[in-house]
Amino acid sequence: MVRPGRGWNHPGVNTDPGRKLIDPERVAAAVDGLGDRAVIDEWAQRFSVVADPSRLALLVSIHYAREISVTDLAAVTGMTDTAVSQALRLLRAHGLVTTRRDGRVVRYRLADATVHELIHRVRPHPEKHPGEPTHPGDDR
């Protein structure tokens, strides 16, 4: 476990004179991989938001629909429009979804490829029949 404040935000490896390292090269690689504490904190916040089953269901639904309205998300998840709106507001505040206005309808979509990939790992696309598009409107 990494302890905040012990070399986290500093380049290189924090080696206490009394601490013996078994594999300094691996420790250096791990420290480089951790990077800035703020980035880790940001992703921890994102994961805590996604940890809620209702919000995760919304993200998975958005992933498969590509873009979808609050009313349609409520129908898909069995939630009320109000509950969906509140959850989407939180997801948007954490940079997980964005919106696109289509006349009077606001459609939600995943914010970026990283979020798409995370959701795809959680719930990969089901097997599709040959020639059937993965997403509505796809010709692939």
Major sheet strand order: 1-3-2
How far do the termini sit from each other?
A: 44 Å
Given the helix and strand composition, which structural class is it?
mainly alpha
Q: Mind summarizing the main beta sheet? A: 3 strands, antiparallel
CATH architecture of one domain: Orthogonal Bundle
**How much beta, percentage-wise?**
5-15%
Q: What's the β-strand tally?
A: 3
How would you portray this structure in words?
Helices cover 49% and strands 10% of the residues. With 140 residues, the chain is mostly helical. The chain has a domain at 52-122: Arc Repressor Mutant, subunit A, CATH 1.10.10.10. α4 (70-77) crosses α5 (81-93). 12% of the residues are buried. The model is unreliable at 1-10 (pLDDT under 50).
Q: What's the arrangement of secondary structure elements?
A:
Layout (H helix, E strand, L loop, with lengths): L23 H11 L2 H14 L2 H13 L2 E2 H8 L3 H13 L3 E6 L2 E6 L2 H10 L18
Antiparallel strand pairs: 1-3, 2-3
Helix pairs in contact: 3-6, 4-5
Main features:
single chain, 140 residues, mainly alpha, Arc Repressor Mutant, subunit A, three-stranded antiparallel β-sheet, 6 helices, 3 strands, elongated
Short description:
By secondary structure, the chain is mainly alpha-helical. The protein is 49% helix and 10% strand. Strand 2 and strand 3 (105-110) form a beta hairpin.
